[in-house]
Structure to design on (364 residues):
């Protein structure tokens, strides 16, 4: 590296440090004035500091608190890059954003009073966007009115963002669509998790309200007399006849168990039930997977009804017009794979309904 390049870098580093020092000094002066008043601030930061604070208030108004950060950023960029040419688009964009903020701060004063003198008097007192914001607000207000002023400022904001990011408007729109889509999916997932949030406690039974009915299990009646068969005695065995027993009074039987202690209730396990919120969440996820799988194969169908049973859950599909039923039946293996089910049964169509039933075994 030549001596000329080294001296040039040192020059920019010195300039950057000086800019950062001014930004820190102005920030401390603003904080001191805000917290302790003008008198204490004058003693703490001296005459130069007091003049600097009054100048910032007059020029930038309420935007004076942004100025030290903007100035400090410029100082860091000067030290890091050591070249003004690299900073120009970025610094110009940030300066444009700063001016837009000051204009917005002062547009309200112009809308309320409409008097040029009143607007600039408010600016000199350190209100709104200061003299810079007042001048911009007056020009925009006179030429374009309040509504047109905000349109112009919005357009300038887009231009400033293009300068800061150094990308084209087309790329900016593309990135905005990409990241907004990801943000929407994230919010959708978080919102879904919030709706179906559940706190499970071990062995906690959830009471069922009167308007909620549990699925009725299928009860198979096996009490037919035909299951009891008279067995013939084998050859050589004698029929023992009726058993002999001794008749005892019930009071005597009760006396024999007076000292018997019943076992505690905690030896019994309380039933564990799935929470309704968890069931709803699983159903919603299966509906999404089912419709997504069918759509990926070009089959347009929506789940119109879900029937939950003790062993299976039936999803009733409403195919779109022109969709053949055989097309859905042929996708049984793909549907089972997407739902992580060992097997499924397709009822096409459901008797008495213009729908196709997909029966999936329950996991629990």
């Amino acid at each position: 590296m030549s001596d000329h390049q080294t001296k040039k870098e040192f020059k920019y580093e010195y300039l950057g440090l000086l800019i950062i020092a001014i930004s820190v000094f102005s920030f401390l002066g603003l904080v001191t004035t805000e917290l302790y008043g003008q008198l204490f601030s004058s003693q703490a930061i001296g005459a130069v500091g007091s003049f600097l604070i009054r100048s910032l208030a007059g020029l930038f108004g309420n935007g004076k608190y942004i100025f030290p950060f903007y100035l400090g950023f410029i100082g860091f960029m000067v030290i890091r890059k050591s070249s003004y040419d690299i900073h120009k688009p970025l610094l110009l964009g940030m300066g444009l954003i700063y001016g837009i903020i000051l204009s917005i701060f002062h547009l309200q004063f112009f809308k309320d009073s409409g008097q040029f003198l009143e607007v600039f008097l408010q600016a000199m007192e350190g209100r709104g966007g200061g003299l810079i914001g007042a001048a911009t607000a007056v020009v925009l207000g006179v030429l374009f009115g309040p509504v047109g002023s905000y349109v112009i400022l919005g357009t300038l904001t887009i231009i400033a963002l293009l300068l800061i990011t150094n990308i084209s408007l087309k790329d900016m729109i593309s990135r905005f669509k990409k990241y907004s889509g990801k943000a929407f999916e994230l919010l959708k997932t978080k919102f879904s998790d919030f709706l179906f949030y559940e706190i499970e406690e071990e062995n906690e039974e959830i009471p069922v309200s009167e308007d909620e009915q549990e699925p009725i299990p299928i009860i198979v009646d096996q009490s037919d007399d035909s299951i009891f068969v008279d067995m013939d005695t084998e050859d050589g065995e004698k029929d023992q006849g009726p058993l002999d027993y001794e008749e005892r009074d019930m009071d005597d039987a009760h006396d024999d168990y007076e000292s018997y202690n019943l076992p505690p209730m905690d030896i019994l396990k309380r039933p564990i039930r799935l929470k309704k919120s968890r069931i709803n969440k699983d159903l919603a996820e299966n509906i999404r997977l089912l419709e997504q799988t069918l759509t990926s194969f070009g089959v347009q169908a929506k789940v119109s009804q879900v029937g939950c049973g003790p062993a299976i859950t039936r999803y009733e599909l409403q195919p779109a017009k022109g969709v053949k039923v055989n097309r859905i039946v042929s996708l049984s293996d793909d549907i089972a794979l997407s739902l992580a089910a060992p097997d499924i049964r397709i009822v096409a169509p459901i008797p008495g309904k213009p729908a196709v039933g997909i029966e999936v075994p329950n996991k629990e």
